[in-house]
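Technical note accompanying the year-one report. For the benefit of new consortium partners, we illustrate the data format agreed upon in the data management plan: each record pairs a sequence with a structure-token string. No post-processing was applied to the example shown here.
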Amino acid sequence: MQTEVFSELFPLLAAANPETLDWLLSVATEHEYPSGRAVLMEDAWGNAVYFVVSGWVKVRRHSGTGEEVSTLAILGRGDFFGEMAILDESPRSTDVIALSNVRLMSISAQRFIQTLFKDPQLHHRMLQLMVRRLRQTNLRFQLRHQPAAIKLVNTLVGLAESYGQSAGSGVYILNIPAKDLADVTDITVEETSKILEKLDSKGWIRIDPKQQVIHLMNLQQLTALASKKG
């Protein structure tokens, strides 16, 4: 991968200087995982930061008894994960599972920490993106009393804005399993399925099981719905 492509693909690295990018590329390791494969396991010690080159993953957490699993976040192309475990030097509190075939690049914890100290622009950018994730968590909390449809459309719009690929008149994202969408939206699986069917029937989205994508036909219209107050 060329340095320019590396920088453009990952917002975290957009502010890094060329020397930093060249060095990170030289020490990065590439990985490929099929859909359903565990990428990282909970309670494992953090030894690397991972960058999503292509595909989708979910971040999930087990209950105290370990019997129930809840999806906390869905990440796609251009995002990263694994940074918290290396920053606080503790075992991971979540695991990461491939939702589709996924390509990743990893950088060892020691080398990544060294890079943060050497490149203040990269350090600052990482703090910005971590604050952004915190704001997204706060938004979910603010939406907790909103109707299920508004909450789900907020999730779909957020995924489209962060990871969606342009497709003619709209944007498409992975056809994410209803259970995972329900978890990250904080609604039931039944509500998720019914709302998706209704949005599909209205022509606002089109679910394509064969291609495994959800096509958001009119992102502007969906964004307007997401901003409504119930």
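Partners are asked to follow this layout when depositing records. The chain has nine helices and twelve strands.
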